[in-house]
Amino acid sequence: MDEAKLEQMRSMLNKLEDIKNSQESIIDKINHVITDLFQNPDKELEKAMEVAHQNSSDNVDAIREIIEDYEIRINQEEISD
């Protein structure tokens, strides 16, 4: 594979990492809201935040798997050159 294609793949990998980092930041913000709810309970908001937290966690796991698979593909391409 030519170097331009590898650079394109590495750029895509950086974007995937950015997506994962953004999702992790969302989880952190959700955790802040959940913590605030200890002082000001709101059952509906707590339930919504639990769902949002789970969805964001699932997204992080999915993106992490995609990143791992994509890194393997990049490494295989680098080796095959």
- Measured by DSSP, the beta-strand proportion falls in under 5%
- The structural domain count equals 1
Helix content: over 70%
Count every beta strand, where a strand is a DSSP E run of 2 or more residues: 0
Radius of gyration: 18 Å
**Which structural class is indicated by helix and strand composition?**
mainly alpha
Unreliably modeled segments: none
Provide the residue-averaged pLDDT: 95
Largest sheet: none
Q: What does the overall shape look like?
A: rod-shaped
Give the N-to-C terminal Cα separation: 6 Å
What does this molecule look like?
- The protein has 81 residues and is an all-alpha fold.
- It is built from 2 helices and no strands.
- It has one domain.
- 93% of the residues lie in helices and 0% in strands.
- The longest helix has 38 residues, at 43-80.
- It is rod-shaped and about 60 Å long.
Reconstruct the topology from this structure:
Elements: H1 3-39, H2 43-80
Helix pairs in contact: 1-2
Summarize the model shown.
The protein has 81 residues and is an all-alpha fold. Helices cover 93% and strands 0% of the residues.
Supply database-style keywords.
81 residues; mainly alpha; 2 helices
